[in-house]
Predict the structure.
Amino acid sequence: MAKMRAVPVAAPGAALQIVERDIPEPGAGSVRIRVQACGICHSDSLTREGLMPGLQYPRVPGHEVVGVIDAVGPDVPGFVAGQRVGVGWHGGSCGYCDNCRRGDFFACQTFTRITGVTYDGGYAEYMIASAGALARVPAELAAEEAAPLMCAGVTTFNALRNSGARAGDLVAILGIGGLGHLGVQYAAKMGFRTVAIARGADKEPLARQLGAWHYIDSRASDPAAELVKLGGAKVILATVTDGDAMTATLGGLGVNGAMMILGAAGPISVSPLHLLSGKRDVKGWYSGTSIDSQDTLAFSVLAGVRSMNEVFPLDRVREAYDLMLSGKVRFRAVLTMGAS
């Protein structure tokens, strides 16, 4: 039987090692993807460290996948061998539970398939994906360009387009990292008065280059007070993983403003009076489904939004993962299936 290289996590905390496996066959409603690129996301640590309930091992991580369909199972309308596709965090849903029937597919009550968590993901030369999880990838995007947009991209783009902000509104992006550097670009291209907030004056040139209208150094000044001087933010997109940084910025929301939390962080402190007095809101935001990813890719081509990536071959997966975890990658790490 034909073999492939893959990087299954054998048990929580186990080392990332390349092994040889049989190339899987797609079943009904699914396709096989010849993986070309897979982003390395901080959420991959959920699989590596066993932080999700009910995880079954061995499990191949990776939910920022781009490749080419090379085999199609039965009952897969709309997709054929040779198509370029991507797969993100949301790997499918039942379609008939109450949440699915209301359109909240991410909250499927029957089975929520999470790529690289509940089934094998993209740290491999081939993977199986449900047809409902597939996004079509535009020809204008190379695989390594498109891969990070399947999670970091769709999370920021989808949050902003569902935030209630309109062109001309003040929108602040808290953090200029793997998510934030995309958030600044999307916000600027959507026509928002985009404010970037980060620690240190050295990050201002990059923020301006990405499209920020204004920059706030949170080390040098109170970010909430600075946002109030600008009229108050309609939206604060919190991409950091620091609860204190979120707390310090909340006071900068304007009337009817909302902080949308994308980064998993520790506790934040919220003043009920501040929320009540201005009809302000604090909410979390899930990334999106396959059509949201497809919209993200299309908008990125149209508006010229690109992820800033460091690219590694699969045989350097351990190095790439460690660099991502340490925060030393600028800004997304992407695996390709070639050799060094």
The chain has two domains: 3-148+288-336, 154-284. The mean pLDDT is 96. The chain has eleven helices and 15 strands.
